[in-house]
Amino acid sequence: MPDLHYGKHLVGSTFKIIEKSNLFSCAAECVSYGICKSFNLELDRRVCHLNGLDDVQYLEGGGNDLNFIYSSIESWNKTALGPCHENPCGYTQRCNFKRNGIVHCEDHLPTVAKGKTTNASSVWGHQPSVAVDGSNSSAWSSGSCFAVAHGDFSPWWQVDLGHLYLFVEVRVTSRGDCCPERLHDFALDVYQVNPLVDPNASPQLCYMYNGAVTQHGKTVALQCTSTVTGRYLRISGTKTNNNHDILQFCEVQVFGFIHW
Question: How far apart are CA 124 and CA 148, in angstroms?
């Protein structure tokens, strides 16, 4: 039997809501998403809430309120949930089971950063907006790579996503024709309010990248180490070695769900 917590529900981690659901269909939907770790089911409204992170410290409810059921997908029988439980997909993917029995993973999340408003601590060459132009080119001559100015010892680049999102994954691509190691030692910080407007805005750390990207044109895919929601993503260099050590990359992709 799966582990069911009556009167409990996880808050702050829902990435998808499904109406007209039941216990089994809610669990089956959860197992099909690579990011889904647990779910909440509202019994009276038959509404399923899929959760991106399974962190019991956020469990709320209890007592005589049995309207909610919370369950971690890991406690369910693999056979009962079908082949998708045997074929886990990536964070930005969903398992698709065809009638012919073929199971495969499909990308289901678009990048939410493309074409959005950007800022940076300084600029060398191309404007910060080129990092979200959707181009796959990683050559400086293409005009699609960004860099801060030489001598910037507190470098950062920021994008305004326009809405609050539950962050799933951030991908950053190094320069391909030269110097990929310029993408090194950086933090992915997420803000709910613009830190350029409110200097007291508190960042939520999505990911801390230590070391250097050494492959030319390499895209590193980084999943947040805890539940993070916000509107602004800032990439900050945490270690500038000298005047010629600049923060540089060619494309930033942000994958996430509108925060409910």
Answer: 5
* pLDDT tens track for 127-141: 999 999 999 899 999
Q: How far is CA 248 from CA 126, 174, 206, in A?
A: 11, 7, 19
CA distance 239 to 43: 51
Beta-sheet strands, E only, within 84-127:
93-97, 103-107, 117-120
Question: CA 189, 107, 109 angle in degrees (round to 5)?
Answer: 45
Written as one letter, the residue type at 187 is A
Q: Phi and psi (nearest 5°) for 80? A: -65, -30
Q: Are 223 and 119 in contact (CB under 8 A)?
A: no
What pTM did the predictor assign?
0.82
pLDDT tens, 153-167?
Answer: 999 999 999 999 989
- Tokens in use for 1? 């039997």
